[in-house]
Amino acid sequence: MLRRLLLVEWSGLLAAIVLGSIALTFLAPNFLTEFNIYVMLRSFCVALLVGFAQMVTLGVGQMNISVGALGGLVAISLGGMLEVLGFPLVLAVPLAILIGALGGLINGVLTVRTGINGFIITLATASAFTGINLGITESIPFYNMPATLVAFGEQRFYAFPYLLIAPLIVAAVLGVFFARTVPGRQLLAFGGNPTAARLSGISSERVIVLAHVLSGTLAAIAAVLAVAQLGSAQPTIGTDWLLLSFAAPIIGGAALTGGYISVLGTMFAVVLIALIENGMVLAKVDPYWVQFLLGALILTAVWLNRWRAVRTGTD
Amino acid sequence: MSDDAIRDAPPRRRLSLGGASGQIGLLAIVIGFWVVFSSLAPGFLSTFNLFNLGRSLAVDIVIGFSQMVVLATGGMNLAVGSIGVCAVMFTGFLLQDLGLPIPAAMALALVLGTLLGWLNGMAIVKTGVNSFIITLASASLYLGAMLILTKAVPYSELPAAVGAFGRLKIGTFLSPLLVIAIVIGAALFVLYRFSTLGRQILAAGANPRAAAMSGVPVDRVIVFSHGLSGFLAACAGLMLVARLGAAVPSVGGEEWLLPSFLGPVLGGTLLSGGVVAVVGTMIGAALVTTIRSGLLVLQIGNFWLQLFLGLILLFAVFVDRYRSVYAERRSTRQR
Fold first, then answer.
1. What are phi and psi of B247, to 5 degrees?
2. What is the reported pLDDT for B54?
3. Average pLDDT estimate for B287-314
4. Number of domains in chain A
5. Which residue from A93, A116, A173, B88 has the least number of CB within 10 angstroms?
6. A23 vs chain B: nearest CA distance in angstroms?
């Protein structure tokens, strides 16, 4: 029984979430209020998509340092299209997501065509995306967002924010994609063992590009949600995504070497992070503690994964 | 790779020829930018600008070295900026709050940097986890701890001698900081080319298993490299303290990430490990500093700088890639 529980990568996470929630309920009386749960769920939305954006590249054994930079670029593109160009929402949002996909395509094609480490490529494109973002906006946000978008970011059904609809759909789609579809399986197969995958006829170029395009798209969706949540298109959106993007999938049990990811694990990891952040706020602790704890959490998760691998003999 | 690219494999003569051209090419690009900037903006060659350029170049070089020594082992250190800023704030604390003499404070800050780097190395070796993820986590850990302890309040009342050293000039425009950076470079050059330890590091970086089989203590070498990286990051932090005359918590952090990779990668250090280019890293850093300073003098502003740096890094890795493809083709033809 213990062995089987240990095999499930998110078992520890779930335990931590339950224990943490119980502790917070007793320690902070306003933890279980409707509004507080709404606030937590709302902060969960963007973070989850950011985690997913990194998760898909980790799955294929790549990484995307430009997740945040691309998010920032998409956010201000959306803001610019809505405020300066006056595009309607139904046109601007798909275009913004397309920009994200295009950014991912650039990352993927550059990585594949040059054969250079994806880390360096995306480090460079991250700088380029941020540069375009800052060059266009000169650090000045777009404030006049359409009321529909802002309302979507604010409205709620009891404790359930409408914003949460998007990440839940994305999570379901990703779950099916990686478990049931051919490209999804190919992506993971390639991440697990590139040589074997190539020998069985999987095009390495196609899966790597696909992973980067997906990553860019997810980062773009995260950026659109962030704009809706903030009610303005800030050029600073995405600047603090890098650590989070790695923290969520890795705490959720993804292998850095590729080939193994967990949609559910990533979700639980983001819940845990949101819980910690919320606890910090309720306890009125220095916000700097979040940074510290996130680092500690990643190290713990990495260590736990090692321990589990040794214990269950899957290593 | 480059004429100082200290390689592990014996066929040095043939390969280093192609490499030297790469480094000369990089130098030519730097000179090209100097010509362009100085003709567009006469202020670029003023002693004031040259002095400032030298000071920031010194910091950029040492940041690059800090990354380079870890790249040599085939790993990477994302905590360079965090360690740097920890050393900065620790110096400020020791000088302002404890009133320690300057040499003692500096020595202790360097010890702290080395210790933080050593911790990274130990965590990597003990867990066997990728250095990327360990240093990503520790970067956040160190930065968070520093912010919790200092509450992000700068130390601005340091002894006057600190800022005075930063403003010191040798001759008309040479900063002593640049001299220190070059001395560090020379020491690293000697380490990697002439010492057993340096050769062991490169061997471990090129092929850990082969190195272990030939008796190289791979784990110890990795821990040493991370300690050295932390030491160099702390050095860069101290240089910044001297330059600013204050200990500011916003320096370092993620801001150092890109420059730390730019210098070594432009200069010909391989990400896969086993090759370092000390002089190349210095020229690479010079390119970055030149562009930054030039854009500043031309008043294009900082906003587009990021884009330029990103494009230059991309351009450099492409050139490097195609150079190695070309060299390979030529060598197969010769056979």
1. -105, 105
2. 92
3. 83
4. 1
5. A173
6. 23
CB contact under 8 A, A246 and B133: yes
Q: Is residue A146 in some structural domain?
A: yes
Range of the structural domain that residue A55 is part of: 45-239
DSSP string, B99-146: ---HHHHHHHHHHHHHHHHHHHHHHHHHH---HHHHHHHHHHHHHHHH
Q: Where are the domains of chain B?
A: 44-329
Task: Tell me which chain A residue has its CA closest to the CA of residue B149.
Answer: A288
pTM for this predicted structure = 0.89
How far apart (Å, rounded) are the C-alpha atoms in residues A219 and A167? 12
Phi, psi of B276 (to 5 degrees): -125, 150
Neighbours of A3 (CB within 10 A): 9
| Chain B residues within 8 A of A129 when measuring between CB atoms | 310
**What's the rounded Cα separation, in Å, for the pair A128 and B60?**
20
Task: Please indicate whether, in this complex, the C-beta atoms of B141 and A63 are within 8 angstroms of each other.
Answer: no
Mean pLDDT, rounded, of chain B: 86
- Contact residues, chain B, for A243 at CB < 8 Å: 136, 139-140
Please check whether residue A165 lies inside any domain of the structure: yes
**Span B44-329: which CATH code?**
1.10.3470.10
Residue A80 within any structural domain of the chain? yes
Average pLDDT per 10 consecutive residues for chain A, totaling 315 residues: 63 86 87 89 93 95 94 96 92 96 96 86 93 90 91 89 93 95 93 91 93 97 95 91 91 84 92 89 84 89 78 60
Residue of B nearest to A134 (CA): B303
